[in-house]
Amino acid sequence: MVRYILLGFLVYFAFRFIFELVIPVVKTTRQVKKQFDSVREQQQYQQQQQSAKQATPKTKPSVDKDDYLEFEEI
Fold this sequence. Notes:
The chain is an all-alpha fold. The protein has a domain at 21-54. 73% of the residues lie in helices and 0% in strands. The protein contains one helix and no strands. It has one helix spanning 2-55. The longest helix is centred in the middle third of the chain and has 54 residues, at 2-55. The radius of gyration is 34 Å and the shape is rod-shaped. The protein starts with a helix and ends in a 19-residue tail after the last helix.
């Protein structure tokens, strides 16, 4: 009889341990991982946008030699 009571307590504490500690930790770990992944994706997107802006250099308008006035020192 004592054996069944101890077994019952063992099963009860095992279920409490699993449902109050293990499962919440697993859920929290998954949630944090998703948040880190989303932040990393946002950073990669921003880096792509910045590299795209830098990849297209602004061209200076070409200057004709006829439009150029030579500077003379006095």
